[in-house]
Amino acid sequence: MSPSSKKPDTFTPCSTPSFPEFVLLIALVMSLGSLSIDNLLPAFGPIQADFGISDPNDLQLLVTAYMVPFAIMQAVYGPVSDVIGRRPTLMIGLAVYLLGGLVATLAGSFSMLLIGRAIQGAGLAATRVLTVAIIRDRFAGREMARVMSITMMVFITVPIVAPASGSLLLLLGTWHLIFGTIVGVAVLVGGWFYVRMPETLHPEYRQSFSFSQIASAIQTTASTRVSIGYATGIGLMMGCLMSYIGSAQQIFETEVYHLGAYFPLVFGCIATFMGAASFTNATLVQRLGMRRLSHIGICGFTLVAAVQLFIALLYDGRPPLLLYAGVFAVNQFLFSLTVPNFNSIAMAPLGSIAGTASSFIGSYTTLLGALWGLVIGRSFNGTVIPLSAGYLGLGAACLGIVLWTEKGRLSLRAQSQEGTGEQALPVAAE
User: Fold this and answer.
1) CATH number of the domain that 308 lies in?
2) Where in the sequence is the domain holding 129, given as residue range(s)?
3) Whole-number pLDDT of residue 354
4) 207 forms bridges with which residues in the sheet?
């Protein structure tokens, strides 16, 4: 792809952020997506009551209506960011997200609420694409995996506290207050990003807009075995996560374990295992390598999912809370040991087209995850069996895809290939 002569964004931040500030800021931008879902989970009951929704499974549309546009629009933001830069593209996405937040806050019907959620997802798709592209602009290989893991460690704090904060907001007002608060948080994070983050797209990687160039970049991404293989693996794993998020409120709060107000506590405890996995990955990835850790993760995930399903069947779909939550938390740990490394491996060969590549991979993986999450989530029948079966099926399929990608070999053979990825370029001069 030929670079254009366009100049990068000329806005000069006060100073370049330090490494800790960079990681924190990127993590907060990423966390807006998690906040927009997890903070809303305690409000499912009040929303159902307000709009007279007869089937509780229909409330999962609040997640799906957000996730499908979130997936589709990622295909737009990446190529745009390769042309005009990461910073202005992210600000456009946040503006769309704020519009959707206002529509959702003021919604007077369930249909209008779903429209607001769709607009939110369409806007926040920019954060999914551009945070990965910005990290890839600055880092490569195992260092990128380390940064992704540290970022995820900060990012995971959101699902730990989001349901509890949502419950607190419900004590102070209605579910409309939750959406209004999220809008306020997005304004603060967007302002911080605008003031402090420089343009990271290197001038020689800046592109002129061309459908043929975009198509060429997508073709390169889709035809790179490592990239498309691990991207498919991410999508299958995201299907597990989306099915869990979609049915967590019904499983823990209402229909299986009847925890009521204690639901955010269990949800947060499980999320801490994901944070612990991100810390473990950041600590070990430079020594052991992305492939070794992720291959251990996906093998362990599939085995634990089999145990998870066995326990679910043994107790007719309603196993003891501590037993099931404990096994499930172990699998969430393995999930977080796997997906960040898959993402880094998929992006490693694609530094010169990072924006479009991140866009395609993000759109593909999110859409795949959202659709599988919807299928499994809508299968909820008052027990944990559909969720457990979904975890095992998708985990086994992901392991099969990884074996195909690595031509039947795991871990040791793949580890030696990690140093061959492109090197990250320095941050673009202002």
Assistant:
1) 1.20.1250.20
2) 19-415
3) 67
4) 3
